Amino acid sequence: MKTSKPVSRKVIPIALVPGMPLQAAPAGGEGEAGSIYQAQTKIYPRSVSGLFSRWRWAMVFITQLVFYGLPWLEWGQRQAVLFELETRRFYILGLVLYPQDFIYLSGLLVISALTLFLFTAVAGRQWCGYACPQTVYTEIFLWLEKVTEGDRSARLRLDASPMSLNKFSRKAGKQFLWLALSLWTGFTFVGYFTPIRELGMSFISAGMGPWETFWVFFYGFATYGNAGYMREQVCKYMCPYARFQSAMFDKDTLIVTYDEARGEPRGSRSKKADPAALNLGSCVDCTLCVQVCPTGIDIRKGLQYECISCAACIDVCDTVMDKMSYPRGLIRYSTQNALANNWSKAQLLRRVLRPRVLVYSVILLAITLALFVSLTLRTPFKVDVVRDRASLARIAPGGKIENVYRLQLMNATESAQTYRITATGLPGLTLASEATVSVNATESRWVPVTLQLPYEAASAGSHEIHFEVESINSAGRVTEKSVFLVPR
Question: Considering the domain 381-486 in this protein, what is its CATH number?
Answer without folding.
Answer: 2.60.40.10
